[in-house]
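Page 37, continued from 36.
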């Protein structure tokens, strides 16, 4: 009987064993079949390291202050070794407590999820590895195929990468709410802290956000976030990651969140917003939106925040003072003429109310501040000298432009005057006679070489151009004036010194490429004449007891007021106007803008000296002028003669190598000997003429030339041969902000341009 029972039991066991083996075989076959079917559809896990997530770009001021953070996904990637141990443990405790043991897929977790689902309670079973696979390679499509792909990819990732690599990728990838991706962004978003400053309670709160960043968000739902944090701490205590004392202390810790609204990535919180938004615009144009807002770039700019803040304060105060004159919009741009670096950019009074940036987006009529380009062209093209005499008396000029009858700003200005006096006193009639003689198109060409109107659309070849009928922006105007300060070289303005990627590797570094745009002789004469504007002319209000030159400007009907001021190490443009393009009451560049320039320049000098930075006291002299490694291009008759003397081909740039040791003073077309006696500001510095002595001058003491005696009768310049008449009115001034409005003219003020 016992034998029968034993045989029967053995037979049942064999049948059970056989059935089990059959089921296992079917299961293995099913799994193998599914794997064989899914495997070809699974991405290559080996490309994980090559797939860098989007990172936050950061823009810094010259002193390292953060100006703005730019991102689509706010993220900064760091190595797991830089993350707090408590944060790593909290994540494992709440998200995947068997992470260190399973092969990428957790069977126990799957079984637990099935049991929970059968009771009507949804519970996830994805491991940390599966979540990385889904976030990096796949999507959230709720299908069986996607789930099988996820599991297959997770197993393969575990074979190729270490647990630390996978966990580090997860902590840098996951979304924690409020556009914060990765633990670095989460720490900054919620607590305003760096990772190494987080407490245990804060680490637990961040780890708890991964499951539901909206439902557990501490900013919007503090009670839910606190409950989730305590759950994470409880899990950590149960798994022996923290002691009971640590657990109780962390639970008792109150929430101290970052102040709401001060996030550096929000537009309203950008530091120096006029400048910062300009930088962003330039970067997007160069690198594209995706690279700028997701490439993790580190942008190091040229802005001086102290000077920027002061310039903003001065402009705001001036707008209040001039409100009764109908001035309600202005701009200040400060550059270093030695390299073109933008030191300050103020494009309005309140960025929060109006983001239109008048510093570079407004194109306004420059008035008489355009005249230096006219005289520069004449010196280059027809050999004009500061001592040349022209008539200042009103006249009517007839040519291809039709009939043109300009007037002087001051009716008392008439009779014969020198070119130097004409610029200092801003006499319109002399500038008009000179532009007709040299040709308006030649003036446009010279202005473009210096940096104005690069598109060639805003300067038109009419005699009225001499009085500023074209349109320029404060930024490009200041940029062009750098040549009058640095020895005659164009140095294009720039806002970014260098760029690195998130790993610190160089992406870009500014390369200074100066280009000569006027001969040394022209530079010397123009610089001296412009010093006369400040010492004894319309720009007296800009005097700062230091080497200063510049030019005032007031457009037709006083709708724009300018002062363009230069020192050997500082250039600034100041513009005032109004958004309705109305005439301002009794406005002039000398009265409105020159005092503003003076205050900003004094502040720049003070900051420079406080920081032990050089503030040059003398403008460069011939043979010393210009930045290193400068280049020379043909700019007219004098430049062409200079190029031929040096054996260069016309139109090709010449490298000017700095001498290894001091050389004797240069003479001839390249410059002149530096006088042994000091020359007062406003006195023309006249090097010897390139081909023998000038018949209009006589040698003076120590080789300094004396100005000629002014002739009693005016010299009438011969106008160009008229072309077939095609009357066209001078270009109209566009408003700083496009708001068409015809306002009545005020009863006072001069409708003539200055």
């Amino acid at each position: 009987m016992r034998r029968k029972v034993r045989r029967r039991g053995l037979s049942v066991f064999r049948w059970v064993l056989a059935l089990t083996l059959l089921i296992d075989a079917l299961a293995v076959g099913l799994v193998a079949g599914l794997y064989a079917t899914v495997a070809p559809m699974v991405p290559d896990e080996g490309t994980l390291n090559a797939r860098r997530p989007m990172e936050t770009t950061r823009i810094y001021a010259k002193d390292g202050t953060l100006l703005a953070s730019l991102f689509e996904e706010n993220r900064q990637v760091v190595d797991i070794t830089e993350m707090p141990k408590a944060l790593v443990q909290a994540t494992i405790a709440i998200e995947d407590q068997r992470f260190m043991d399973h092969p990428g897929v957790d069977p126990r977790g799957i079984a637990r999820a099935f049991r929970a689902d059968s009771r009507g309670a949804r519970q996830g079973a994805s491991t940390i590895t599966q979540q990385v696979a889904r976030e990096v390679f796949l999507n959230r499509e709720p299908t069986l195929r996607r789930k099988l792909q996820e599991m297959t990819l997770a197993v393969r990732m575990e074979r190729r990468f270490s647990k630390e690599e996978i966990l580090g990728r997860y902590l840098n990838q996951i979304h924690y709410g409020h556009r914060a991706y990765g633990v670095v962004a989460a720490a900054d978003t919620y607590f305003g802290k760096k990772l190494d400053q987080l407490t245990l309670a804060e680490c637990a709160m961040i780890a708890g956000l991964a499951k539901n960043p909206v439902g557990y968000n501490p900013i919007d739902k503090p009670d839910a976030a606190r409950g989730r944090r305590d759950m994470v701490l409880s899990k950590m205590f149960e798994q022996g990651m923290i002691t009971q004392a640590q657990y109780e202390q962390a639970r008792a810790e109150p929430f101290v969140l970052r102040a709401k609204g001060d996030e550096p990535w929000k537009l309203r919180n950008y530091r120096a917003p006029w400048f910062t938004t300009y930088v962003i615009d330039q970067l997007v144009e160069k690198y594209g939106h995706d690279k700028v807002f997701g490439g993790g770039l580190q942008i190091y700019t040229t802005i001086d925040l102290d000077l920027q803040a002061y310039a903003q304060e001065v402009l705001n105060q001036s707008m209040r003072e001039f409100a009764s004159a109908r001035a309600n919009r202005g701009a200040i741009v400060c550059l270093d003429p030695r390299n073109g670096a933008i030191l300050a950019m103020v494009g309005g009074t309140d960025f929060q109310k109006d983001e239109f940036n008048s510093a570079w987006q407004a194109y306004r009529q420059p008035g008489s501040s355009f005249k230096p380009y006219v005289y520069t062209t004449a010196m280059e093209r027809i050999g004009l000298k500061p001592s040349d005499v022209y008539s200042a008396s009103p006249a009517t000029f007839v040519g291809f432009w039709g009939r043109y009858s300009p007037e002087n700003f001051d009716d008392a200005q008439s009779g014969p005057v020198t070119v130097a006096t004409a610029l200092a006193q801003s006499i319109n009639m002399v500038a008009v006679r000179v532009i007709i003689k040299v040709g308006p198109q030649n003036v446009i060409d010279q202005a473009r070489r210096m940096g104005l109107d690069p598109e060639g659309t805003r300067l038109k070849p009419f005699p009225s151009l001499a009085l500023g009928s074209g349109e320029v922006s404060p930024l490009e105007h200041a940029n062009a004036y750098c040549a009058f300060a640095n020895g005659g070289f164009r140095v294009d303005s720039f806002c970014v010194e260098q760029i690195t990627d998130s790993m610190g590797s160089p992406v870009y570094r500014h390369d200074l490429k100066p280009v000569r745009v006027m001969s040394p002789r022209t530079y010397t004469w123009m610089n001296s004449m412009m010093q006369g504007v400040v010492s004894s002319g319309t720009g007296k209000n800009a005097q700062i007891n230091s080497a200063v030159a510049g030019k005032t400007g007031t457009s037709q009907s006083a709708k724009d007021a300018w002062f363009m001021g230069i020192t050997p190490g500082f250039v600034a443009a100041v513009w005032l106007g109004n958004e309705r393009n109305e005439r301002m009451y009794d406005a002039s560049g000398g009265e409105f803008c020159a005092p503003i320039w003076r205050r900003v320049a004094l502040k720049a000098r003070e900051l420079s000296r406080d920081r032990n930075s050089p503030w040059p006291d003398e403008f460069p002299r011939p043979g010393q002028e210009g930045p290193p490694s400068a280049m020379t291009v043909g700019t007219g008759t004098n430049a062409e003669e200079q190029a031929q003397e040096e054996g260069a081909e016309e139109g090709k740039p010449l490298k000017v190598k700095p001498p290894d040791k001091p050389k004797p003073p240069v003479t001839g077309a390249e410059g002149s000997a530096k006088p042994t006696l000091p020359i007062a500001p406003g006195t023309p510095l006249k090097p010897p003429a390139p081909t023998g002595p000038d018949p209009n001058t006589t040698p003076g003491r120590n080789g300094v030339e004396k100005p000629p005696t002014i002739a009693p009768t005016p010299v009438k310049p011969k106008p160009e041969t008229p072309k077939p008449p095609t009357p066209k009115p001078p270009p109209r001034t566009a408003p700083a902000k496009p708001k068409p409005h015809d306002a009545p003219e005020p009863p006072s003020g001069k409708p003539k341009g200055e």
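The radius of gyration is 37 Å. Flag for discussion at group meeting. The mean pLDDT is 78.
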